[in-house]
Amino acid sequence: MDPTKRRSRILTVVLICLVACALLLCVLHPSAEHLYVLEVQGDSITVISNGRVLATGPYPYSVIYCIFAD
């Protein structure tokens, strides 16, 4: 496997884990307003809440964390 692709895969997995942890912290008190869905396709991440698209695009993990830190 190409080292660049491998690094990209590892970064994607780390990003997903960080977002999952942020979601876990934000959803400790479940309510409709805190229901987030992440759709990850390659480098594109879409954040959906209550049927509305909140954000989409290739974001670094720090930006994704800020989205959920409301």
Written overview of the protein:
The chain has helices at 3-26, 61-68; strands spanning 36-41, 44-49, 52-57. It has 70 residues and is of the alpha+beta class. It has one domain. Strands 1-2-3 form a 3-stranded antiparallel β-sheet, with no helix packed on it. It is flat.
Topology of this structure?
Blueprint: H1 3-26, E1 36-41, E2 44-49, E3 52-57, H2 61-68
Helix pairs in contact: 1-2
List its traits.
alpha+beta, 70 residues, 2 helices
Brief sketch in words of this structure:
By secondary structure, this protein is α+β, with helices and mostly antiparallel strands. It is built from two helices and three strands; from the N terminus they run αβββα.
Roughly how many Å is the radius of gyration? 13 Å
What general form does the structure show? flat
Q: Please identify the structural class as seen in this structure.
A: alpha+beta
How is the largest sheet built, in terms of strand order? 1-2-3
Number of E strands: 3
What is the N-to-C succession of helices and strands?
HEEEH
Q: Overall mean pLDDT score?
A: 69
Binned strand content: 25-35%
Integer tally of domains: 1
Low-confidence stretches: none
Main beta sheet: 3 strands, antiparallel
